[in-house]
Amino acid sequence: MKKIYSLLMIYCSLWSCTPNFESYKAKAEQGDLEAQFYVGRCYEKGEGIPVNKTKAVEWYQKAAEQGYAKAQKNLGTCYYNGDGVPINKTKAVEWFQKAAEQGLSGAQYNLGCCYWDGDGVPVNKTKAVEWFQKAAEQGFADAQCDLGICYHNGDGIPVNKTKATTWVSKAAEQGLANAQYTLGCYYYEGDGVLCNKEKAIKWFQKAAEQGHAEAQYNLGICYDTEKDIPGNITKAAKWFQKAAEQGHAQAQYNLACCYLNGEGIPGNVTKAVEWFQKAAKQGHAKAQYNVGNYHYNGYGGPVSKTKAIEWWTKSAEQGVPDAQYSLGASYYYGTGVPINKTKAVEWFQKAAEQGHAQAQYNLGICYYHGDGISVNEKKAVMWFQKAAEQGHDMAQYSLGMCYFNGKGVARSESRAVFWFKEAAIQGNQSAKRMYINCSIQPISHFN
Asked: Which among 305, 315, 402, 309 has a CA at the least distance from the CA of 351?
């Protein structure tokens, strides 16, 4: 669920100019306020006359100074966006305020946005909510949606999820895509309403069909989580594609996975790599790791260990344990970078602390042999134990050997045999031999 998005949009009046521009201009020159507004509108939009935003401002100014609310709002918009005048958010707020006090809902909403973002006025979320409320009560959909989100998050007003749902629903029913998406999130998560996945999908669908990227992604997730239902995985890929094409990084990653695994779409490694790269360039950590893998193995292009290191580093710095392990292994063996066992240990440590079994085993080896760090057999045993408990056969074998030799832990025949057996079951031949030997002769025989 997003919070309120900054300044959603500064609305302009959507009036059509009469084809007879000159007759309106004549009335405007005689002081007719509505005509002055329409002439400004025609100049702004180039309706019946070439666009001239400077003149648009002049005519809006004439009507605005005489109290014409629509002109005041549009003049505020010009100052806000710098159309026909230099940007001046303070003046924008002044004109929005004048129009808002006359009850113009679009101006009330715009003024609320300015207070929300601190544009031309200090940030004041309480005042923002007050103006959203006024506009919402007049049926202004964006204000209804934002007011609902304020109630949901407790921004500028106490949390009230019932009111949040009420206001967001009003906006959603008017067809506002962001409100439809938000309402879908409430139903999906059971947030302020009873959890109802069918209603969630209904509202995500409505927003998605209007091109709302986040809703398209969420709709894809809804179908993906029920991929056993015929046709759903195809629908998931379809919506991931739509969101991905709008630049949604997580959708790009998911679409790449669909291409990689041939789920809901024909498998295509080249396209998978393309979408992983798009997501990676936006900073998606797992995509960065995958791009590193492709450079390392030469999928979708020539092998480049150096580029692999670059992408793994980006991913590792964002905390992806697989990338941290790969980077550690690269430093340990000198693949794509000079050997640096101290750095190897640092990256193994980061991945190991996140539960990465291979990193835990490697870190144990480093402690056992003093590679990149001082020898510490107790810590070696600790990390072997963690990896062994996750089923890592070499860690199980190494832990068995520590018990067998009394290295870093008290010698124990039963514990050694236990871990040799666990590793042997997984096909570890060294462990199998030790298990057989220990079964024939007690550990004391090997002293």
From this structure: 315
